[in-house]
Amino acid sequence: MSNFIKHSLVKPDTIEQRLYQLDLAGKALSAPTLVVLPTGLGKTIVALLVIVSRLEKAGGKVLILSPTKPLVEQHASFLKTALNIPEEEILTFTGAVSPENRAKLWEKGRVIISTPQVIENDILTKRISLEDISHITFDEAHRAVGNYAYTYIAERYFQDAKNPHCLAITASPGSSDEKISEVCNNLFISSVAIKTESDSDVAPYIHKKEIEWKHVILPDEMKELKKLLDKVLDDRFKKLGELGYSLSSGKSASKRDLLGLQKKLQGELRGMADPAVFSALSILAEIMKVNHAVEIIETQGIESLSKYADRLENEAVSKSGSKAAKRLSEDIYMRQFYHRIKECSTEHPKLNVVRDLVSKELTDKPESRVIVFTNYRDTSEMVTNSLSEIEGIRPIKFVGQSSKFRDKGLTQKQQVEIIEKFKAGDYNVLVATSVAEEGLDIPATDLVLFYEPVPSEIRSIQRKGRTGRKHEGRVVVLVTKGTRDEAYYWSCTHKERRMQSNMQQWQETMTSDNDNHDITGEFGVSQKQQTGLSDFTDDEVTVVLDQREIRSTVARNLEKMGINIVVKTLEVGDYIVSDRTAIERKSAEDFVSSLLDRDLFRQISDLSGAYDKPIMIIEGEGLFTSRMLNPNVIHGTLAALVLDFGVSVLYTRDPEDTASLISILAKREQVDEKREISVHGKKSSMLLSQQQEYIVSSISDIGPNAARNLLEHFDSVENVMKAEQDELTKVKNIGPKTASKMREILTGKYKG
């Protein structure tokens, strides 16, 4: 008979008592800790034990951060089941909850589960404070690298909280010392605790997991297609060599080799680059497209290859398509390749292996659940369609949210619905891309199939963890002999072994460090040197930014510099620093894209029409390489911005550099020049319609589109102001709440 956790904040008889979980929680309570535990062994329960202990001893409220909305809802459901806390004090924060409601709910909540982007935004806009948070759990902590929101939240937390403590949990932190070190530094971790399936206290809860590698041979007809592409690659690599940029590995060059050469070439463009550099970059773009097609032939299948070829051909005839795609479409071997695909009747042997394995599994055990992992969406659709032809197999495609040419993604709501139906047995096979690798509450799976190996140890471990949870499981990885499948297999195997070795060393080192520092008793602030915010100036400086810019790290860096951030829906520009100065910010790639889409001059025209001192900031590299436009086109555009529109064009290296420049501009305008901010500018040359839109859009929650809708409906500003609430709700995109707020603003007495 199982023993259960007994704690005043845990509902009786809900959480089984497991010694390894208690051991990990005990270590985690002594210091900010990274807990590494295989998938399915209860990382969330370890977090629960830490959470209730902190709530009992330190009080305040706790925050659980998880990367996606489905994961947030999953954690919330579990915590409401397990915690002996009123449900109204257990809250979920996602983008679906309005910022105003989040600010109100924050005060009432005791346990808050949220996506990190939402918390980051609310900290930046000062809607919430982390002062009274006594604990944060960082779920899927391996994401805490680079500019991911976890890093900013952790930094602010250890600066602002009265009594900070955090727990980071993951099944796979990465194989390199650099990656593990970055995660630990970013989250202020001073202790590492690891449990593996071979540990004596974990072993009783582990079910046998059979791992099998199945090899297949590429059919002759597909080899012939590959030969055509090899001829294209031979020609392009030869041309690269003639330009002085050969790769020693030639056609065997990996994606990393190609990207490395691309970075080197882009670096040479900073000065007065030789024309050969532009030619080399253009040829390299063609190589990368053809190289991807070779990978699909070797590892995926004809249907996936056909869809990729269709996209290449569509790109070649599109006005905004790349020159690389256009030149490839003119190559004689590529034309033969496009033609031969349509005639190819042989499918990749992997597909039949998947059909046979899944069919046998579900015939022998009809109640089984199966996951087939594929790297590409086209393959997931191909596999789903093929499996649906077999009686007794009920497959469903499970992909991410983004959409592209002829490929619509799934919303998070649709993803959750699919998982629920998979649990219920409406579907018995999930054909998934990487979206199903991480964290989601997918039921115990009997068979996990890798359509191809993955070179990432993190992704491989996450996939394998989908089986062997509640009973014995099986993992089968398909490998095409003599192809990059085999290279990925060896790469991943090596990285997994290195990760296990590195993590043991980190645990020993960091435990030793903690012992030396005598970390006992109540947890205090980490001894790690913390980076403070820049000193605030005596004069408060404000930057108004468009709501879309909150997603960038520019806002985060501005806030660190002591700049007051105000987020609005701006009609023109991305940042406003005074009544005469507004800034449009674009990455080098965005600048070129908006030029090709003909959107750039409209944006600049609006900006220069509203502000006396309009500024364009072009951020990062790639201005002359991202789409391989003739340099004269870029130079001509820049000249037009300066001479025709009076726009100052400034360049920055990265978001941090951009933030530094914006802060200097804001201080110059507001402190030195004593100018105020106006989100509408001061130019008097605006058309009457523009002035009318400005007036209406100045009402809280009314953006430029809503203002136009209101004016088109009521004909004049006066009629908009006089309209009753029920009349306002008849206008497109004006709901009852917005209408009510408008009437409150328009009719409420002024209290200066």
Brief digest:
The protein is an alpha/beta fold. The chain has 28 helices and 19 strands.
Percent of residues in helices: 40-55%
* Rough outline: globular
Strand elements, count: 19
Structural class: alpha/beta
Helix count equals: 28
Task: Identify the notable features of this structure and list them briefly.
752 residues, alpha/beta, 48% helix, 7-stranded parallel sheet, 19 strands, single chain, 12% strand
What does this structure look like?
- This protein is of the alpha/beta class and 752 residues long.
- It has 28 helices and 19 strands.
- It has a 7-stranded parallel beta sheet, with helices on both faces. A 6-stranded parallel beta sheet has the order 8-13-12-9-11-10, sandwiched between helices. Strands 15-14-16-17-18-19 form a 6-stranded mixed beta sheet, with helices on both faces.
